[in-house]
Amino acid sequence: MLFNNAAITAMGAYEVFKTTQVELCNTLFGELENTNIRVYTISPGLVKTETALKGIETVASHMGIATEEFYKMNEGHIIGIEDAGTGFAISVLMDDKYNGEEIGAI
Questions:
Q1: How many domains does the chain have?
Q2: What InterPro entries does the entry give (predicted)?
């Protein structure tokens, strides 16, 4: 099950930041289009970082479910730090393909 974070209390600021990040990428791509500078944004999904794990407790609470239930609902969408790092490194090698794009893990 996937859900939109914007509907969850305390996630609005995060969603605004993520939207702003994508729009900044779009703006920079347009401004740097005829240069050798590549611009793209990565939305890896839920990466198992210490900060994310703490945030999951808050999100689950606002959803009215136990933290364990949140993990079960999203088990196919949570990636480890190593996988996220590997994906980032590969994206750098393929920057021509991703220039001006938003890359998502899911």
A1: 1
A2: NAD(P)-bd_dom_sf
In a 3-state reduction of DSSP, which class is residue 94? coil
Looking at residue 2, its pLDDT comes to 41
Instruction: Note if the pTM is more than 0.90.
Output: no
**CATH code for the domain of 36:** 3.40.50.720
CA 19 – CA 48 distance, rounded (Å): 21
51 domain-assigned: yes
Tell which residue, 3, 99, 7, has the closest CA to residue 46.
3
Direct distance between the N- and C-terminal alpha carbons of the chain, in angstroms, rounded to an integer: 12
pLDDT band with cut points at 50, 70 and 90 for residue 24: very high
Residues whose CB falls within 8 Å of the CB of residue 94, separated by 6 or more in sequence, listed in order: none
In a domain, 96, yes or no: yes
8 A C-beta contact, residue 47 and residue 79: yes
